[in-house]
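Re-run with default settings, no changes from the original entry. Doing this only to confirm the output is reproducible before filing.
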Amino acid sequence: MTKQELFDHLVAILHETFDIEAANIKPESRLYEDLDIDSIDAVDLLVKLKPIVGKRMQPDAFKLVRTIQDVVDAVHSLLDSASPA
């Protein structure tokens, strides 16, 4: 899955789950400051992302995540590490 596909999927999740307007979601959008995603919402987001990665994601992998692009990059790296060489 490409980073663009991940971004598009993430936008859909944020819109459906948290009722955030898709037009307001940009790669540089900050989760807490711009989109009002708090720590409880972040856990819900991880649950929604689990089917994409295909395994349980550790919250530690997302400790430094601050923006939508950070989420895309973190999920993409998990997908890369899960892919057979």
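Helices lie at 3-18, 39-53, 68-82. The mean pLDDT is 88.
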